[in-house]
TrEMBL record:
UniProt xrefs under InterPro entries: Bact_transf, EPS_sugar_tfrase, Sugar_tfrase_EpsB_2
UniProt lineage: Bacteria, Pseudomonadati, Pseudomonadota, Gammaproteobacteria, Alkalimonas
UniProt key word Transferase: yes
Name by which UniProt lists this protein: TIGR03013 family PEP-CTERM/XrtA system glycosyltransferase
Membrane topology: Multi-pass membrane protein
Record field: transmembrane: 12-37, 49-69, 81-104, 110-131, 281-306
Pfam family, one: Bac_transf
Record's keyword terms, sorted: Membrane, Transferase, Transmembrane, Transmembrane helix
Amino acid sequence: MNKATGYGKKSFADQIFLLGELFLLLASSFIASYLLHQFVTPIPFDVRLINAILFAAVVMLCALSVGLYDQQLRESHGGILKRVLITVLFSAFLLEVVLFNLFSSIAINVWYMLLACGIAIFFLSSFRAVFHYHDITSISRRRVLILGAGERASIIEKRMRRTVDRRNFEIVGFVRIEGDKEGALKNETILDLNVQEELFQFAMENAIDQMVIACDERRNMLPVEHLFKCKTRGIDVVEILDFIEQETGQIAVNLIYPSWVIYSNGFDSKKWLKTNLDYRLNFLLALFVLALTWPIMLITAILIYLEDGRRTGASVFYKQVRVGIDGKPFHIIKFRSMGPDAEAGGAKWASKDDDRVTRVGRVIRKYRIDELPQLFNVFRGEMGFVGPRPERPEFVCELEKDIPYYAQRHNVKPGLTGWAQLKYPYGSTTEDALEKLKFDLYYIKHRSLLLDLVILVRTVEIVLFGKGR
């Protein structure tokens, strides 16, 4: 099996899943329009076809926005059903209120929407239940051999403990290499294998698709000839850093060494299209969001004023110095969610159940309404919609001392939302900052217009379900 086949095998189950959902959504639309055609009013086939395509496309986009295509989504069947319901209701709103009003010639009637949505909810919920119950993803799992059983290899055990973390691969075992720290692995299979003599034969006999170099000491310890033969026979050989990046969407900061950064692909800030359109696209998007949300912003300002602004004379807005691109400070603008004297004793980390937060503040923080005034930071070019969240200078000084490569997150413009906000829950400690940095570095390495679009769409999930900040 060559490398391309190995990666194709990884995504085969996902392709089946996406094609299955696409087929069911098209079927839902056709069944609904057929019933209307037979019992209510004749509908031309071309109108039925256009509606089916639009219905499927909008539902799948909304499913992405609420996290239904997140490979590491951990939800019960009830949680999946709730997300499916939200997806279909959101889709119905977009189709009925937006698209069908703009293009009235393709609209059928409200009964079509009710029927199509009802059928889709049944089909999608049933399909997902069957798909996950029978664990169809097992047909596409790569067989992975880890070369190393020490401290570096233990990162895999710690990072990928859950079944959902290993949905794309099956670890055949960990092979101890001379120089590995003893006792680092707790609950993994350690193979008794003489790698200098038996590695290639073992790989062939056990249909290994991928080998991960994860030993503590590499110099003169790896069986180079065997690795060469494995590579030429189509077995993928990767560094542990690349493996973790590929499977978790983060960069393991504690494993980085300078030569990996220098020689790896990514970290390209000179992409012509993104560089030249960045401010224009952010400005237009901020203008669009402002046009949609100004009533919410007005109501929020009034509520903050009535709660304690009228009594204390404090502003409804809160300005705070943050660190921006290239380490330059700027003033971030937010709705005030804490009392006027919240930081009388100095700068403090905000926490999830912070007692300094007001009643209005709890609501607007949960649904990220407090972030809306940052649209004006976008207009001024200090922030973008997508990027690492900007941190306070007091904390940045602390974090740069404690966390290697922390300053690299300032190589791009900060954002209202980001990859770390999608992937990591609320956090307010140095350890949380380290975890979020791993995702921020992944974003900086891979950033593109497409990735920004995915993050923007999936930010809906953060707002609806109150995930990370």
